[in-house]
Description:
- It contains four helices and nine strands.
- By secondary structure, the chain is an alpha+beta fold.
- The strands form two sheets. It has a six-stranded antiparallel sheet with strand order 3-4-8-7-6-5. Strands 2-1-9 form a three-stranded antiparallel sheet, with no helix packed on it.
- 26% of the residues are buried.
- Residues 34-63 have low confidence and may be disordered.
Amino acid sequence: xxxxxxxxxxxxxxxxxxxxxxxxxxxxxxxxxxxxxxxxxxxxxxxxxxxxxxxxxxxxxxxxxxxxxxxxxxxxxxxxxxxxxxxxxxxxxxxxxxxxxxxxxxxxxxxxxxxxxxxxxxxxxxxxxxxxxxxxxxxxxxxxxxxxxxxxxxxxxxxxxxxxxxxxxxxxxxxxxxxxxxxxxxxxxxxxxxxxxxxxxxxxxxxxxxx
Length: 211
């Protein structure tokens, strides 16, 4: 293949029409330079990717702090509504759930895994009948997925470690985020401010001006 290319290049150089010959040579040189540059860029990206992988391998793995129990266990520990909402993507009734009008200070955690999800400091009265928040307490514990059920496109919200269906997020909330995380009470467990340390969430006391 390379030999054929050299023969072709030789024929181009020996062409009588020097203008056409020059145009072909310039075109070939441009293609060669583009391919070389592109290859170099890809190699740089791969090197950076490999370096990142090596760096990640060096990071200590302490294991997940929050996990999801087996479904058989959840069927025994959760109420039928909690199981329906978190495991079967159900929706509870508005204005007829535990936390829609809860005004106490504290944090909301996943009823399945216990991972921290939302804070009372970001809760607001949306008038929808479900607990609503402007942002997550721990964004890393929240996963968003496209939901196309009921002939509409919405953004579903799930917990990262518990894989619990929590609700949906909408772009019609108040400032500063303009977002409304509309969450099912059945997917949450509320930890009052005074119980945070006792329940193992003492690090969040600083949110409420306490040590």
